[in-house]
Design a protein that fits this description.
The chain has 17 helices and 47 strands. With 929 residues, it is of the alpha+beta class. The strands form 13 sheets. A 6-stranded antiparallel beta sheet has the order 3-2-4-10-7-8, covered by helices on one side. A 6-stranded parallel beta sheet has the order 28-27-26-25-24-33. A 4-stranded antiparallel beta sheet has the order 1-12-5-9. α7 packs parallel to α8 (417-426), α9 packs parallel to α11 (491-513) and α14 (623-640) packs across α15 (649-677). It binds beta-D-mannopyranose. It catalyses: Hydrolysis of terminal, non-reducing beta-D-mannose residues in beta-D-mannosides. It is found in: Secreted. Its EC number is 3.2.1.25.
Length: 929
């Protein structure tokens, strides 16, 4: 019987010509070997992978993140490394292609002993027709990819006669020099928060593609969703229908009469609409078409906190009239407009008190909103360790932290699609950047062509994600880099070169491919001064041509003189803050992942040398520089808080790490409140993105989330201050004037009460002789702030010891414009605290903290039994990852704090009894031995 079946199907196959289809084989499925002749090493390997990780897996090197391996493993990148595998031979009749989505960075590729190609850009997709090589290949085909030493190659390129040079200091030098000459993740050569491994390997998937005649393989997809008549950088008309423009890049060849079909499905997989795309054009292995979708057919996509994250699946099919489909592909899309509005301040804005100048804020679906978030850096030096699970955990922390936008910083890498997918689903806007930063770049033809290819691939790949908020050309180019060459001998040339790369190449690439996304050449800038869409490159930058009294652009702010950290009169007044910060230590638990027990000390050279701020400035260890950065932290926390002085060395180290985190959180908190208050000030400030969300490794950095996922005090403080409605004190140290503001970023006004109470440190209410309001009725307009009052503290606290006074402020608000006879259901409560002196000199007392675990309700209850507790910190053991819904808070005896928790499973195991090892402390504990 079985034989008969086989015989029949063989006969059918003979009679009916069955259409062969494209076969894609993931190159990871072959058995790879990694070898270096000079190093005399040959080990099993992985693709995608990295040389360091393969050597670690084979036991040749230890954990690259351990101790000072950042320096000690430098030999690894010296020799060339070859990945090789025997791969399968394609079926005859098909054309065969090698397709690489990411090679890091300099390779020479061979197949069957024949040279295929050389590559030199980590961020390009490469594809090679290897049909003929296979045809002439006798025996088993071996594919080998030889990786060169990027540090050495970049140096050679820098020495090419006639190569561009810049004045000293223009290239931000971290560890290895010359990163601006090569298209490799710039922080691979070191950064002030990371190591310099210069990783190498196939960092993205790679494929063998076999394509039969008249078939294709789609290698990249552009989908652009915009409102009819929409022009990038200008306010789109929300009453218009949607245009969906799709463009598929393919390998193989298409018949001339091929067309494009589409089908749009909602999240329940129900068909919304389908049809043929119109205006179909075929050119250079790309097929493009578009359609109009009626605006009422679809729901909008919104960022988290502002609405639903409605996604649709768009299936695109290349088909031929009367015949079967040739190939099809699906992308998740969302319907939204996102604009970076840099238009001049309008008369109606001026009438509302907005200072003249230009706007610089984002608008989602036609609405201004307050962007709350931080800066995203590469979450690992080795990208193949960045898993979906880890990124889901990180983005969960972003959303729980009340952040709606991340800036994907410019000198790392373009994010893989799975991270954009997570952002699409959770509603986290990703301001994305081309990977150029803290340097000026060459503009020779080859370099520009290379950048163009990179930009075309990345812009087209990423554009369909509704989370994509912006493309920026690079990091700190206008506010830092050009500033350094401005007025120099070759100033005009440097500015012209800058415009060539960042406007003519990168800007034009965005505009050629996308009508939906705004572009700005530099992360921090004064914005454009003119747009002229009759030119392919419409932007004229304002640069430094500013008028006194007017406000433009976004700001960044770093000041390592911590003595002025809380002087808010020094913070920049701009339309948006895209960077600000100060470094802090990770917790002792995270340190333990990377350093030996004996090194758990502030004085340990291992700990000190893992501090890269200020950067070592070269490949050698630089203890002096590193000590400088450590001292900044010491000075900061010892100025403002009691100095830990514990006898047990590990306890002392843990306390110092925590002290540095408390300063960091306090400092960022002060700035976040200042920027948010700006939404109701003449600057009409509409964004706060602090530096930086997360860590690349275990070290002192600006991060709010440690490597491994543990939240620092900062992430909790930012979560608290990124709530919709907050109450904030602003104390002017010079004239002792205290002002209190309530700020809201809701789209509609809120009303309610503010309760304020002065206590002494024991928690006893103070009897003020002067009038100070206890309960105030408050209303705050949509995305606005309201000043509650202004008091001179020496008058208000007349006769009271300033060191023994604490002010508690609490809002209790609801939506102001409810329909008649409707009771509010949602309340906006926020508690905040103020002390007229720094805690280092305040008369703090033992607050008598009591911690109770209520396992059934997944919560802890914290009581302060004998005084006000400042900066209460719940700590948990190393072998588990826990996040609390609040931490780093203050508690007074009148109101216990309830803290809910979530345990994040690691390998499905939660250590039994972890909660018994949770501890509670406050700033008071620093005073204990
Ligand atoms: C800015 C950023 C980063 C840097 C950070 C901390 O310069 O753009 O380049 O890591 O500050 O110094």
């Amino acid at each position: 019987m079985a034989n008969l079946k086989a015989w029949i199907s063989a006969l059918v196959a003979l009679i009916l010509p069955v259409k062969a289809s494209t076969k894609v084989t993931d190159l990871s499925t072959f058995k790879w070997n990694l070898a270096s002749t000079p190093a005399n090493i040959s080990v099993p390997a992985k693709i995608p992978g990295a040389v360091h990780l393969d050597l670690q897996a084979a036991g040749i090197i230890g954990d690259p993140y351990h101790g000072l391996n950042d320096y000690d493993l430098r030999w690894v990148i010296k020799p060339n490394w070859t990945y090789s595998a025997e791969i399968s031979k394609p079926a005859s009749g098909a054309s065969a292609w090698l397709l690489f989505n990411g090679l890091d960075t300099f390779t020479s590729i061979e197949l069957c002993g024949k040279h295929v190609a050389a590559t030199n850009n980590q961020f390009r997709q490469y594809w090679f027709d290897v049909t003929n090589i296979f045809k002439n290949c006798s025996g088993k085909p071996t594919l080998s990819i030889n990786f060169g030493n990027a540090v050495e190659i970049s140096e050679k390129i820098s020495k090419i006669p006639g190569q561009e040079t810049w004045p000293p200091g223009v290239e931000g030098l971290f560890e290895f020099e010359h990163r601006q000459f090569i298209r490799k993740e710039q922080n691979d050569f070191g950064w002030d928060w990371g190591p310099a491994f210069s990783p190498t390997g196939t960092w993205q998937p790679a494929y063998l593609v076999e394509i039969p005649p008249f078939d294709v393989h789609i290698r990249n997809v552009l989908v652009d969703v915009y409102r009819e008549n929409q022009v990038p950088l200008l306010v789109p008309d929300q009453s218009k229908n949607w245009v969906v423009n799709a463009s598929l890049d393919y390998l193989g060849s298409l018949p001339k009469d091929a067309h494009l079909e589409f089908a749009l499905f909602d999240q329940k997989k129900q068909l919304v609409t389908e049809g043929k795309l119109t205006n179909v054009i075929q050119a250079s292995n790309t097929i493009t078409g578009s359609t109009v979708i009626a605006k009422d057919f679809v729901n909008l996509w919104w960022p988290t906190g502002l609405g639903n994250q409605t996604l649709y699946s768009l299936r695109l099919t290349i088909a031929q009239e009367g015949k079967k489909s040739i190939s099809s592909v699906t992308r998740k899309i969302g319907f939204r407009t996102i604009l970076l509005n840099q238009e001049p301040i309008r008369p109606d804005q001026l009438a509302k008190g907005v200072a003249p100048g230009a706007n610089w804020h984002f608008e989602i679906n036609g609405k201004e909103f307050y962007a709350k978030g931080s800066n995203f850096i590469p979450p690992d030096a080795f990208w193949t360790r960045v898993t979906r699970d880890k990124m889901e955990l990180l983005f969960d922390a972003v959303v729980k932290g009340n952040q709606n936008m991340l800036r994907v910083w410019a000198s790392g890498a373009y994010l893989p699609d799975f991270i954009y997918d997570i952002a699409d689903e959770l509603g986290v806007l990703l301001w994305s950047e081309f990977n150029f930063g803290d340097a000026l770049y060459p503009v020779d033809k080859e370099f520009l062509n290379n950048c163009k290819e990179e930009a075309v691939y990345q812009v087209r790949r990423i554009n369909h994600h509704p989370s994509l908020a912006l493309w920026a050309g690079g990091n700190e180019l206008e506010n830092l880099e050009l500033r350094q060459v401005q007025g120099s001998e070759n100033s005009t040339r440097y500015f012209a070169e800058y415009e060539t790369l960042f406007l003519d190449i990168l800007g034009v690439t965005v505009f050629e491919n996308s009508r939906s996304i705004s572009y700005t050449p530099s992360s921090t800038s004064n914005g454009w001064s003119k747009l002229d869409f009759s030119r392919p490159q419409p932007i004229t930058q304002r640069y430094y041509n500013t008028t006194a009294g007017e406000i433009y652009g976004d700001t960044d702010y770093y000041n390592y003189d911590s003595t002025v950290a809380f002087d808010f009169t020094r913070y920049p007044v701009g339309r948006f803050s895209n960077e600000f910060g100060f470094h802090s230590m990770p917790s002792i638990h995270t340190w333990r992942q990377a350093v030996d027990e004996k090194d758990l000390s502030w004085e340990s050279e291992v700990v000190i040398l893992r501090n890269h701020h200020p950067p070592p400035g070269g490949p050698e260890k630089n203890l002096n520089a590193a000590r400088g950065g450590m001292l900044e932290m010491t000075q900061a926390h010892s100025t403002y808080y009691p100095i830990p002085n514990k006898t047990d060395p590990a306890a002392q180290f843990a306390a110092l790490c925590l002290a540095s985190q408390i300063f960091q959180a306090d400092y960022y908190g002060s700035q976040i409140q200042f920027y948010r208050r700006g939404s109701g000030m003449p600057e009409r400030q509409l964004g706060s993105l602090y530096w930086q969300l997360e860590d690349i490794w275990q070290a002192p950095t600006w991060a709010g989330i440690e490597y491994g996922g543990r939240w620092k005090v900062l992430h909790y403080r930012a979560k608290d201050l990124y709530q919709n409605v907050i109450v904030s004190p602003f104390y002017n140290l010079e004239d002792q004037k205290l002002e209190v503001y309530v700020t809201s970023d809701l789209f509609v006004p809120v009303a309610g009460k503010l309760h304020m109470e002065w206590y002494d440190w024991k928690g006893k209410p103070l009897n003020l002789t002067q009038n100070f309001p206890k309960d105030v009725n408050v209303t705050v307009g949509a995305i606005n702030s309201t000043r509650i009052g202004s008091w001179n503290l020496s008058d208000t606290l007349n006769g009271i010891d300033l060191k023994n006074a604490v002010l508690m402020m609490e809002t209790y608000m609801w939506l102001a414009e409810l329909p008649p006879n409707t009771a509010p259901t949602k309340f906006y409560r926020h508690r905040n605290w103020f002390t007229p002196t720094f805690l280092s000199s305040a008369k703090i007392v033992d607050p008598g903290l009591k911690l109770t675990h209520v396992p059934k309700e997944l919560k802890f209850v914290i009581k302060a039994t004998s005084g006000v507790a400042a900066w209460v910190w719940l700590d948990y053991p190393a072998d588990v990852l826990v996040t609390f819904d609040n931490n780093g808070f203050w508690v007074s005896p009148d109101l216990p704090m309830i803290v809910k928790y979530e345990v994040h499973e690691d390998n499905g195991k939660i250590p039994w009894g972890w909660a018994d090892n949770v501890t509670v402390q406050s700033i008071w504990d620093f005073t204990l031995p």
